[in-house]
């Protein structure tokens, strides 16, 4: 009886872990059959137009919300470039935000700007919502 109980508990634990792993699985933006839909990007006539609108709106939003005045003391003179990697979940939320390529103070501001992205319609593969990875370069100029 104890062996059966332990086996059943182990099976349930493995199944729960497998489901959790499946929930965390992501696909690249290029692998999606339907891109996420940013608010204001109505579903357009073609998937290519939807992808373009999504990318343009994300870039516009992050650039509008990234506070260059706040990061200026930590940036180098001239052109600065960093990258932010994040996931748009199958629920349309932004998670797993991680920035690289700049001093910590700049990375924190970039992550803050990306975390403030609005809720979106999720990406899909074969009609099913999926978690999608997105990589965003942020470029800004500083004149000191």
Automatic annotation (TrEMBL):
It holds the Pfam family TonB_C. Residues 82-140 form the TonB C-terminal domain. Gene3D superfamilies: 3.30.1150.10. One of its GO terms (biological process) is transmembrane transport. It comes from Christiangramia fulva. Residues 1-18 form the signal peptide. The keyword Zinc-finger does not apply. This is TonB C-terminal domain-containing protein. Keywords: Signal. The keyword Signal applies.
């Amino acid at each position: 009886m104890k062996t059966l109980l332990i086996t059943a508990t182990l099976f349930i634990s493995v199944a729960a872990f497998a489901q959790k792993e499946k929930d965390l699985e992501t696909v690249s933006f290029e692998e999606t059959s339907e891109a996420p839909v940013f608010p204001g990007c109505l579903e357009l006539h073609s998937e290519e137009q939807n992808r373009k609108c999504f990318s343009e709106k994300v870039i516009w939003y992050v650039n509008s919300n990234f506070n260059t005045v706040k990061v200026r003391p930590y940036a180098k003179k001239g052109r600065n470039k960093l990258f932010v990697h994040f996931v748009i979940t199958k629920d349309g939320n932004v998670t797993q935000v991680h920035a690289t390529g700049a001093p910590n103070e700049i990375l924190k501001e970039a992550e803050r700007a990306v975390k403030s992205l609005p809720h979106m319609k999720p990406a899909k593969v074969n009609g099913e919502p999926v978690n999608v990875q997105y990589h965003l370069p942020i470029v800004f100029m500083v004149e000191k």
